[in-house]
Amino acid sequence: MGFVGRWFQLLVQLSHQSDVCHAYQVLHAHGIPDENIVVMMYDDIANNAQNPTKGVIINHLNGSDVYKGVPKDYVGKDVTVENFLNILTGNQAAMKGIGSGKVIASGPKDHVFVNFVDHGATGILAFPVGELTVKQLNDAVNQMYQQKRYAKLLMYIEACEAGSMFRNVLSTKINAFATTASDYDESSYACYYDDKLATYLGDVYSVNWMEDSDKENIEKETLQAQFELVKKITTTSHVMEYGDLSISKLVVGYFQGPKQAPSKTVPKVLKDKTAPSWEVPLDILYRQQAAAKTEIEKENFKSQIDDMIEKRGHLETIVNKIVTRVSVSREHQQRLTLARPQQLTNLDCHHQLIKAFSRHCFDFGTNTYALKYAYILGNICEDGSLSVDNVVRTMRQVCKAVTIKDRID
């Protein structure tokens, strides 16, 4: 391929761990050595008591095990925003004594591939606890560029409203290219609902690019060709691209490995087996209720559904109280709660309000339904007429009674 540097990959997946496992298998099959792959995943699925196939994770219906051999560099409590940023920027000292200690130890001739799959919202990528803001990610990428930590950087991001992490933010002049599962104002989608396991096995955008890499010759296929294919077959959301688009002329193998792997036959994503990521917990309960064989089971699922809906309503009430108290008029309140998020330009304000809401009200990592309303915080910042300190003070007052019992899902 004419590439003289090294490959480095950071795989971060928390909700659909089958995606991170499959991504690892793609890279491993294409010749990327484990020492150049860093895997962050919560790792609570393979050996979970509710998993009928212990030690096995699959990424599509009737699929093969993708869990075997996956490095467990950072799992459980080590999967944090701070650790992610230290790993990405090569801060080895900060990771000493944590997990495997591996970081992206890349240099000016190397190609870096970051694949992230989890929940998201306007300017947010969620972690098990806490969230990565668009400001944090953008600062980290620019730091990497300034410190000459890569020749080319590729990011594949699977999350709701993932486009908001890069839209008019990612520079076209720092040798970085990103594609996302969704535009700035829409959900990404889970797919492959398995009736036996009672869960979704993957995410539409992710399985589409991985299954393409499984079967295509990535030493010849360009990133643009893969993007166009994934964009065409991902009909549940709009797949987007950002940054230095000239990088898309490079072949996929420049980032996913130098060796051609055996081609695989892959299934099609079934539309009736998909769901918006925000609605997955509730969707699964409805599916389980419909499949229940006894009235007792049906009532049990109904109780769980009612509880989740009630807690969602409580969250919505909290958000509405905050907006009402900071708004100067009814018209102002309506402007802040427009259905579509505004373009993020005030990243400092956005970062402050997101962190404050997560700290005082609902943590976005553990209360993923709260992500659906994160756009309002962005709209407050873009409105520009309100004091950030006053908004934070209002959050603290309104949310002072919120407890762990209010967790949404």
Helix content: 25-40%
Distance between the termini: 46 Å
| Radius of gyration, CA atoms, in whole angstroms | 21 Å
Proper CATH architecture of the largest domain: 3-Layer(aba) Sandwich
Poorly predicted regions: none
- CATH topology of the largest domain, what is it called? Rossmann fold
CATH class of the largest domain: Alpha Beta
Return the structural class: alpha/beta
Number of helices: 12
Please state how the strands of the largest beta sheet are arranged side by side: 2-1-3-7-8-11
Instruction: Count every beta strand, where a strand is a DSSP E run of 2 or more residues.
Output: 12
The share of residues in extended strands comes to 5-15%
Quickly count the domains.
2
CA-based shape: globular
Main beta sheet, described?
A: 6 strands, mixed
Overall mean pLDDT score? 92
| SSE series | EHEHEEEEHEEEEHHEHEHHHHHH
Structure characterization notes:
This protein is α/β, with parallel strands linked by helices and 409 residues long. The protein has twelve helices and twelve strands. The strands form three sheets. A six-stranded mixed beta sheet has the order 2-1-3-7-8-11, with helices on both faces. A three-stranded antiparallel beta sheet has the order 4-5-6. The longest helix has 32 residues, at 295-326. The radius of gyration is 21 Å and the shape is globular. The model has no long low-confidence stretch (mean pLDDT 92).
